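User: Hey, quick favor. My workstation is busy. Could you predict this chain's structure for me?
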Amino acid sequence: MNSIIANRFARKVPSDHLFAKTGQVWYIPHHGVYHAKKPNKIRVVFNCGARYGGTSLNNQLLQGPDLMNRLVGVLTTFHQGPVAFMGDIDAMFHQVRVPEGQQDLLRFLWWPDGDLAQNLEEYQMNVHLFGAVSSPNCSNFALRRATDDAEKIVGPETANVLRKNFYVNDCLRTEETEESAIQRICDVRHACALGGFNLAKFVSNGRLILESVPDEARAQDVRTLELGSGELLNSTPM
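Assistant: No problem, here it is.
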């Protein structure tokens, strides 16, 4: 939670704004969840489906059209070339801001600095939540808009990678050579960055590709690999 606040994904509600207009405030319960493979990392889950007075936040949100690519199509395209790479956008939903006038509907209670000895205070999310039915549509729309804006800089082929080779926040792409894959990663990362998205956690079956990616942008599992040879790690896409 401290990380969410430090990254400005959430903020303390200003004292002069605590008593917002009736009917335009909602408090979301939250809890921590651990992943079996990541015992030292806790994820904060906001329960947007929690009901009060016969309704929930998700009941009131419009889901919007489904803008996600079909997984079968993304995977089929992913097996077309010999050189593969994958990456994902860090905290994609949290990179897309909620209009300020709607942030009171994303309030929650928390202790200052997580100190349970202090009194609870009111906070509100500034960004879209994992678990809100509207978040996938809003985030995918933002990524598509960022793609359209970046197309004149990175070119249509790279722009189409963002349009066709992403499943939610995961990029799955193959190229014919390592050289073209290295350039493609550079261009796709640049296009994402122009829209405020950080594409990272890269893995690949090419050592030269992994060497070209900054260490902090590689997946945790491949950061300690010995990358001495320029040969492909596998002969076919992962």
